């Protein structure tokens, strides 16, 4: 589950701000339970217990289902990520480009693979030939099992500009037919042919619906990913603010007319769990693939 520090995440924070509800979450992490079972565990009335469960349900942390005459509660979230605003360097100017996920210029993918647009799938699912269909430019979500997709970003740096830092951010997840919340995948990033590093996606998430995922997308297929930000500096690379690899700006040819960005599942990857890229109108972040060139 993805949270931020806007008001839309308040329901989840309020739901978690209770020792009773935290105890309910711990109990439900072991198995589904009825309201009466939980009430007995808590030493509370069924009415009070139901009120606590209702707050957890409204926050998207649990769901209810029928089992005979009993109303059962089950936990539907196994992790929560909180994203804080990214602080940039105000002394640097920036060229920023957001690239729609369907605007890739090169690819080599194998099933399971496909693309989704605002109202339906684009072409046939698991048919890689559709990755060159003109309709791909409408894609808001793409996925594949093995191989790569590559994008070309414009290089607006002039001879007078000194590149100080590159930020690349995208909402990413693994790929599993339908979904699998625990399905690790090693996703490797390249810029201008230089390997920046590999991040292991923990899963292909459908525990709750993506905040921006269109309603036509079934509940049991990938709904959202995790927003990952790679920063390349003159002293190494960082992933979400943490040291990532030793690859620096000096390792990248920055004099080309464009920056190529590749997302790949390598043949020798330890976890070959595929890749899903979410763009505008899909997932939990209403953005496309974002490249920032900080310069002075």
UniProtKB/TrEMBL annotation:
Domain HTH arsR-type as annotated: residue spans: 1-95
One Pfam family it belongs to: HTH_5
Keyword Heme among record annotations: no
Keywords: DNA-binding, Transcription, Transcription regulation
Gene3D superfamilies with a match to the protein in the record: Winged helix-like DNA-binding domain superfamily/Winged helix DNA-binding domain
Regions crossing the membrane: none
UniProt protein name: ArsR/SmtB family transcription factor
Upper taxonomic lineage: Bacteria, Bacillati, Bacillota, Bacilli, Lactobacillales
